[in-house]
Design brief:
Helix content of chain A: over 70%
Largest interface: A-B, 39 and 39 residues
CATH superfamily of the largest domain in chain A: Tetracycline Repressor, domain 2
CATH topology of the largest domain in chain A: Tetracycline Repressor, domain 2
Number of helices of chain A: 11
Structural class of chain A: mainly alpha
Low-confidence stretches of chain A: none
Strand content of chain A: under 5%
Mean pLDDT of chain A: 89
CATH architecture of the largest domain in chain A: Orthogonal Bundle
Oligomer: homodimer
Number of domains of chain A: 2
DNA sequence: GTCTATAATGAGATAGAC
DNA sequence: GTCTATCTCATTATAGAC
């Protein structure tokens, strides 16, 4: 049995992903965990503190993804494998993205950490893209790469919310995940060289 | 002096754009308008109703943009002119985009209308792009056009929130508007033909 | 560490006088 | 149409027994 603290955080992640952190009351959290509301406040003196703790976890998970870029199965394309892992992670923590505006207002302290996180993520992606340019897989100027990084970041961050508001898809399946992934991929496609396209084709057949 | 009802809606648009519809209380609204809270409830019996009324206005404004696609100044490029007007409109009603997730939960009735709006908007954009393909300004398959439409829609809808959460830019200036606009434009750039690029150049010099 | 109570707040909303 | 007064209620949060 995990610790009560962990059970609280697990429950909150689920609840927040489903309904957003503001529609979820402390009473609901306690009920879900199966503890009393007073006990909840023993672990987290403010509701805000739960958000901080969850963000810590999120960061840790991101670090794992970022620091293990070479564990790809086929090994043929670390860039795409990285993107896929990163994508899945964002889905697991989707409430941070979906309710970003409201969270920012409630817990302004998270802002700075979030910026740091994006700084690093975008730097990672940019480095990866420039490397692909060097390898002759992509053909793009640095300015184009910068635009690409930002667009990829935005699509990745918001496609879940888009899917929900546009097509009433609240519960996302692996197929949807694929769709979003392709949507991001399509940003890079016009910049791929013949060599890059061949490699991508090999990857797809591999899956 | 506009009617009290209009003054309420004007004030709410401002307040909501600044702080989001949930951080803004009915007390604050009444104070801003300079009326009593009780009076506010004479016009809108539920806070939700204010959102509905604002959405009506938003739709009307969109209709104006959509139905007047030929009023472009230089007349050389209706597509881009349309995009610019549409972009500015989204900025004026940015809280609908930024706080979409939370609004959806509070006023589920808005969902359906929102979907309709997106249906129409995306159909408009697609038609416009296909027309540009026919005119030889763009080179893209229909599948590519579909991907483009969705990506353009997502970037347009969320770049403001991105700017805020990524760079702490809450107050957007015309320069930022330009930045976002270019970001969307960069999606189409790799698909432009030589003829299309020449036309775009003429447009830029015209401004 | 966990529970029972209960406080403290602050929001949305209403009734009825003017 | 506008205001005063008041209500209801959900929610966060605390104190103290077990």
């Amino acid at each position: 049995m995990p610790s009560t603290r962990d059970r609280i955080l697990d429950a909150c992640l689920r609840l927040f992903n489903d309904s957003g952190p503001f529609a979820v009351t402390t009473a609901e959290i306690a009920r879900t965990v199966g503890i009393n509301e007073g006990n909840l406040y023993y672990y987290f003196r403010k509701k805000e503190d739960i958000l901080f703790a969850l963000f810590e976890r999120f960061q840790d998970a991101l670090n794992v993804v970022a620091n293990a870029p070479h564990e790809t199965g086929g090994g043929s394309d670390p860039g795409l494998a990285y993107l896929e892992r990163w994508f899945r992670l964002m889905w697991e923590w989707r409430f941070f993205y979906r309710d970003g505006a409201a969270i920012k207002r409630m817990a302004p302290k998270l802002r700075a950490r979030n910026v740091k996180l994006a700084d690093r993520g975008q730097a990672d992606i940019k480095r990866m893209l420039l490397q692909m340019v060097e390898q002759g897989l992509l053909a793009a100027s640095e300015e184009e790469v910068d635009r690409l990084v930002v667009n990829a970041w935005i699509i990745s961050s918001y496609w879940l919310d888009y899917l929900d508001s546009r097509h009433n898809i609240g519960k996302v399946t692996p197929e949807h995940l694929d769709w979003g992934f392709s949507q991001v991929l399509s940003l890079f496609l016009p910049y791929t060289t013949k060599a890059g396209q061949a490699q991508e084709k090999r990857r797809r057949q591999h899956v």
